[in-house]
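Sequence design from tokenized structure. All designs in this work follow the same two-part layout: the structure record, then the generated sequence. An example of the structure record is given first.
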């Protein structure tokens, strides 16, 4: 066993004895690692344990393993990485500025399972044969999606999406080339006069960024996954049908119950969906 592995084992034992929560008390874990490393260095001088070649790297490796996501933590800490996904233990990919990249990280099946269980601790979600896929949010705001066999063929499949803020205003989006100046001016005017604005696009197209970059609106609402938020039903036809359909789909009926809205009507200017 190398020095880092010995140090990690000792820190885990200290955490267990002192009842430190590594997820919620990262500062406490860092303090324990400092103390454990000082004691370890003294013992290494007399040859009782192997010396640490790089103390800074050892410190980071232990903190990442105990309070972070181990070999995946460096990708979470990298501001350029937008997404992490594991197709198999030997295929760990990241996306930088929308471009996929196969990393040199190689895991084992047991490591993948342990990482997913660690990520699910804070959310209270579970992943087993009765619930073979799960969506959850990590403490840092990242979104986790994990799937296990038999939904997948052989290995656990894991996806972690980070919310990387590259634009905080419409001017930023224009500077990045995501919007033309004319489109930005139109969005600003539309929000100021109270028009309904629907931002839609594929995964990683920048939907949340576009919404957050528009001027503040008291009635802003974000819907991730329109198919879950909007139930598609046929609208009423015939004389007066359009008005009655609007009352049923996007307003409140006379009984006060909230009704569903068709996707095609949700896109129309007549829709009152907020």
């Amino acid at each position: 066993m190398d020095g880092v592995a010995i140090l990690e084992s000792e820190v885990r034992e200290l955490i267990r004895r002192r009842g430190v929560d590594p997820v919620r008390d990262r500062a406490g874990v860092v303090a324990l690692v400092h103390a454990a490393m000082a004691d370890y260095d003294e013992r290494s001088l007399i040859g009782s344990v192997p010396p640490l070649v790089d103390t800074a790297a050892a410190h980071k490796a232990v903190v990442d393993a105990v309070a972070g996501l181990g070999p995946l933590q460096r990708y979470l800490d990298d501001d350029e990485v937008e997404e992490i996904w594991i197709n198999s233990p030997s295929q760990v990919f990241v996306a930088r500025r929308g471009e996929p990249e196969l990393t040199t990280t190689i895991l084992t099946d047991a490591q993948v399972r342990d990482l997913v269980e660690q990520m699910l601790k804070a959310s209270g979600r579970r992943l087993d044969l009765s619930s073979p896929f799960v969506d959850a949010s990590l403490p840092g705001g990242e979104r986790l999606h994990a799937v296990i066999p038999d939904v997948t063929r052989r290995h656990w499949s894991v996806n972690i999406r980070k919310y990387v803020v590259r634009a905080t205003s419409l001017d930023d989006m224009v500077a990045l080339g995501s919007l033309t100046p004319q489109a930005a001016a139109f969005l600003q005017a539309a929000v100021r006069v109270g028009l309904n604005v629907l931002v839609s696009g594929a995964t990683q197209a920048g939907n949340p960024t576009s919404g957050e970059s528009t001027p503040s609106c008291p009635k802003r609402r974000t819907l991730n996954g329109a198919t879950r938020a909007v139930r598609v039903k046929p609208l009423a036809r015939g004389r007066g049908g359009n008005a009655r359909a609007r009352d049923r789909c996007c307003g409140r009926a006379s009984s006060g119950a909230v009704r569903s809205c068709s996707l095609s009507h949700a896109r129309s200017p007549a829709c009152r969906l907020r």
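The longest helix spans residues 26-45. We note this feature because it recurs in several other targets discussed in the main text.
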